[in-house]
Amino acid sequence: MQAQVQKRPRVMSGMRPTGKLHLGHLEGALRQWAAFCDTADAFFEIADLHAYTTAFSDPQAIRDARNDMVVDWLAAGVDPDRSTFFLQSAVHEITELQVLLGMITPASWLERVPTWKSQVEALGQEIATYGFFGYPLLQLCDIAAFRGERVPVGKDQLPHLEFGREVVRRFNHLYGEGKQILVEPQATLSQFPEIPGIDARKMSKSYNNAIFLADDDATTTQKVRSMVTDPQKVRRNDPGHPEVCPVFALWKIVKRTHVAIVEEGCRSGALGCVQDKGDFAEALNEYLRPLRERRAEIVKDMGYVERIIAEGTQKARAVAAETLHDVRQAMRLL
Ligand code: TRP
User: Fold this and answer.
1) 314: domain CATH number?
2) Are residues 169 and 289 in the same domain?
3) What range does the domain containing 122 cover?
4) How confident is the chain (334 residues) per 10-residue block, as mean pLDDT?
5) Which residue has the least CA distance to atom 2 on ligand 1?
6) Quick check: is 168 in a domain?
7) What confidence score (pLDDT) does residue 76 get?
8) How far apart are the first and last CA of the chain?
9) Are residues 160 and 276 in the same domain?
10) Do residues 15 and 61 make contact, with C-beta atoms less than 8 angstroms apart?
């Protein structure tokens, strides 16, 4: 009997190698990536060229972050045997595609992407390069080179995806002769809420408020002890408001079964913040322990990590080359 083979959706996502990964990356992206290894044909990119759009003056940092980031992917359970890890800068088809699609991309569409104006305002003229201006187009090329259908990203990336779909539509309209040469990607939002950092703002390396996957237990405990809580709960027995407390938000992720107890204790005043943070630090270290143990094993053999990247990149190039063949043909370059 012939087995019915259901085609798995092509999933594509990437991360910039700009530093150590933290709890926000784990819950916001890596958990979902690991799950896609079971259900999709997934391509995961080390977006090193994207890192150069803002961190171009520190190339060594980008180089160093590359393998470290992949160690965190592996430790989080993203499986390279059932997905493809690759290095963006080594897949020349992506950069070629960017030149080709650049020919039909109106500059006004890029000017409209909100990150362009806001980042130049925040970081200054220095980062207002041609490369940074083209960031959303490069991101589209990452996806389109693999005909990615679904793209797990955070909601900050939605304007990039929307822009990308417009470029794909324009390409197919101009050159497709009724065929969909390139695929319009759809965003898949993470089901996790935004992860707060130790100061209650969104967890981010640049805010200096992150709990890193590679932190040791003592560092984690120290960070948890310094967390802000409900500012209205001044003394131990004051009733608190868990909904404004980042420790409470993290309890929901780290130990669901304990949430009701913490909520009740906080609201009634029976549970003080110092006690709660001590309990939470323990729970968090427990939660991260398996991942940290895997991490410690993986770093003993960095040759393995390099091999995964090299093999995945080779496979990724073969897939992207097929797309580029079709693109060149459609544009009458062949
Ligand atoms: N732009 C993404 C970010 O800043 C990273 C990224 C690069 C990406 N290429 C991608 C995400 C392709 C999804 C698909 O987080």
Assistant:
1) 3.40.50.620
2) no
3) 10-195+302-330
4) 74 95 95 96 98 95 97 98 98 98 98 93 92 98 98 92 98 97 94 88 93 98 97 90 96 95 95 96 98 98 98 98 98 97
5) 15
6) yes
7) 98
8) 42
9) no
10) no
- Domain-embedded: residue 191: yes
Residue 111 sits at φ, ψ, to 5 deg, of -60, -30
Cα-to-centroid distance, 3 and ligand 1 (Å):
36
Residue 153 is classified by DSSP as E
φ, ψ at 322 (rounded to 5°):
-65, -45
Residue 210 lies in a domain: no
pLDDT at res. 276: 96
Ligand 1 pocket by C-beta < 6 Å: which residues? 12-16, 45, 47, 50, 139, 142-143, 151, 153, 157
CA of 60 to the centre of ligand 1 (A): 21
User: Can you read off the two tokens belonging to residue 209?
Assistant: 């408020």
**Residues 185, 290 within the same domain:** no
Count: domains in the chain: 2
Q: How far is CA 125 from the centre of its chain?
A: 26
- Please tell me the distance between residue 4's alpha carbon and the centre of ligand 1 in angstroms: 34
Q: Which atom of ligand 1 is nearest to the CA of 142?
A: 12
Q: Whose CA is nearest to atom 10 of ligand 1?
A: 14
* pTM greater than the 0.85 cutoff: yes
> Which residue from 21, 48, 85, 139 has its CB within 8 A of the most atoms of ligand 1, so it is best to mutate?
139
On whether both 280 and 307 belong to a single domain, the answer is no
Provide the CB-side half-sphere exposure for 199 (13 A, CA).
Answer: 10
Separation of CA 14 and ligand 1 centre (Å): 5
Choose the residue to mutate in 153, 190, 194 for probing ligand 1, maximizing ligand atoms within 8 Å of C-beta: 153
pLDDT score, position 5: 66
**pLDDT reported for residue 156:** 87
Choose which residue among 46, 50, 85 to substitute to test ligand 1 binding: the one with the highest number of ligand atoms within 8 A of its C-beta: 50
pLDDT at 4: 59
147 within domain boundaries: yes
Which of 48, 43, 39 lies closest to 146, judged by CA?
A: 43
